[in-house]
From TrEMBL:
It is found in: Cytoplasm. GO terms for cellular component: cytoplasm. This is PF03932 family protein CutC. The lineage of its organism: Bacteria, Bacillati, Actinomycetota, Actinomycetes, Micrococcales. Belongs to the CutC family. One of its GO terms (molecular function) is copper ion binding.
Amino acid sequence: MPQRLPVEIAVQDAEGVRIALEEGAARVELCQALGLGGLTPSAGLIESAVEASAAVGVAGFVHVLVRPRGGGFVYSADERAAIARDIRLCARLGADGVVVGALDEDGRIDLDALAAFVDAAGEIDVTVHRAVDAAADPVAAVAALAGRGVRRVLTSGGAPTCAEGVDGLAAMLRESGGRLELMAGGGVRPDDVGTLAALGVDAVHLSARRTIVAGPGGPGGGSDGYDATDRDVVARAVALASAHSIPLVE
């Protein structure tokens, strides 16, 4: 039997987790600093998200972005070790999966780093993030993930946004051959869901952000505003995705 096309929401706080649960999202990518592309969230936020999903009986909901900094995806040995430690912490805190990625100096998937990340994850899901879109050959980067313990890949098809990356997404689907799930993400708006579903992607991902102006941060306080999850955008995306289905994998 088919199931509806899953929607994943990138969220940065407990309220975002709650909105995603209440509006029927399939899962969240839990992170902070979306303005930098997303960084590893706090242990307290991970615990809160796990407790919230458990309270309403939603399985497989909390997937944690593990990324120590912005500025690209080529990591030092110390950074790779820190990522592996954070992955193990996520698993201990009850996360359902982690979202990771690394490139080598030549712009290819860093397979040694990836193997260490998969090993650290143990039994929880591993998603590779949009590091693939920064690779020298994004389609080859996705194809290289098959058979390496990765469940899914988040990608815009190698373009700045999914709307611009339709051809790349189609090529990735062909090259991966169903050996891993392909989740379309990158500048996705609810109105893009139908087009992406028609391509045959396995899920869609969006941040559904709006900016709240909170007033002057003061010296050292940073920005005067912050991002929040827009309930209406989440609800619309889930409603549009519900009109599309994918095969149910036993």
